[in-house]
Amino acid sequence: DFAADLRRESARTLVQGAIVVGAKMPDTLTKTLTSYIGARRSFSYVELSPDQIALIQVVPDDDVLKAFYEENAAEFTLPETKRITYARLSPEMIMDTVEVDEDALRRLYDERVAQYQIAERRLVERLIFADDAAAADAKAQLDASGTTFETLVEARGLTLQDIDLGDVTKPSLGAAAETVFAAEVGSIVGPLPSDLGPALFRINGRLEARHTSLEQATPDLRDELAADRARRLIEQQGEEINDLLAGGATLEDLANESDMLVGNLDWSGESGEDISAYEGFRTAASLVTLEDFPTAEFLDDGSLFAIRLDEILSERPEAFEDAKQKVLAAWEHDRIASALLAKAEALLATANETGDFPETALVKTETGLTRTAYLDNTPADMMNQIFTMEPGDFQIVTGEGSTVVLRLNEVLEAEDNEEMQLLSDALGTQLDQAISEALFTAFVNDAQLRAAPRVDQQALNAVLTTYQ
């Protein structure tokens, strides 16, 4: 049986190899794709933007806005909205009522004493020499203005980054500390001893000591401890809140029986302010249904909350009065867009008539760009449109916030260089793999059809019954 299995496996491998190995896609497709991707265009264009449009300020009356509102109702349609009632208890809501132990304040301050008691420091660079004589000679050259500190560093084959010690305290400098800390900012002192040999020190900055007493740090420490204590208290209330909800209490009852506050919001799936800014709330709001009972859940900041879905509002037109400001903004935008398009059409008419852009137009020219090229402040679809044009054609392309008038100057084939050859090779390899997989899939499907496998449903049901 084992030998038979090996023979069958070997036979399958041989058949698979015979089908897959050597399968090759015709070169025509590879060349076509390479030519398509690498094709280039040279073109000129005039960019028109809203800031070039000067219109008289007009304040439309309500009748004009209502007509625009009705013609563009889709722009002022509210999305499906869930009306949600929620109850929330956050650490900030009970912090003022939380008592903080004075000993805990002292312990936290002691744990962070390095943060509150910062010693005086200096920003220092240290250049080390082999012996005192070499260090003294370098210092003499500096004193005589015969060289610079940077030149000495370069002569040692180092950079300023290599010798930068950053900000250091007195203990870290050892015997050199007193001299370095007594020197003025910008001065170079030495030779002085260091743990790696005699050195010259350049002082680049002075950082004064900073001492924060317990009394000064107490407000921040108290808030931190109170917030932590509040989170723990809220966590302990989670089970009690769930028991109340399970017993039939409403969210409004929670406001009477606990410190929780009840609120309402219309949620349409977007992040908002306050509680809807939390990912945990948005997840709960997206999953809640009208049949669900409220349960207590926690937010990332330790807040406890529960929600109830009151109503689902389907997509609907926003009331004109509520949308009036948006309608006014859209009307003004449409007015500018219409003026911009009229200006582009006038420019296009002139260009078509003369065969060139007017001399007064600010014309930009690009040479040999491919479909994937990107130009700032141009419509996103501009490059696609260019590749549909014939040389000498003019065309208007509009986009969000910009409009251009194009002229195609020249059609260029793909470049014959190493990059395009690599692209062609990669495409050829992918296409060969694709046709190999397609041939093998076709063979397998045919083999299955010829084998005509059948499932004994009765036997299958009997087997499944034994597992139930």
Verbal overview:
With 468 residues, this protein is α+β, with helices and mostly antiparallel strands. Helix content is 48%, strand content 21%. It is built from 18 helices and 16 strands. A four-stranded antiparallel beta sheet has the order 14-1-16-15. Strands 10-3-12-11 form a four-stranded antiparallel beta sheet. A four-stranded antiparallel beta sheet has the order 6-5-8-7. It is extended and about 90 Å long.
For the largest beta-sheet, the strand count, sense and barrel status come to: 4 strands, antiparallel
Strand content: 15-25%
- Helix count, per DSSP? 18
- Quick one: overall form? extended
What oligomeric state is this? single chain
Q: Which residues sit in consecutive blocks of at least 5 with pLDDT less than 50?
A: none
State Rg. Answer: 38 Å
Number of strands: 16
Task: State the separation between the terminal residues, measured CA to CA.
Answer: 33 Å
Estimate the helix proportion, in percent.
40-55%
Can you give the mean pLDDT? 87
For the biggest β-sheet, the strand order reads 14-1-16-15
Class by SSE composition: alpha+beta
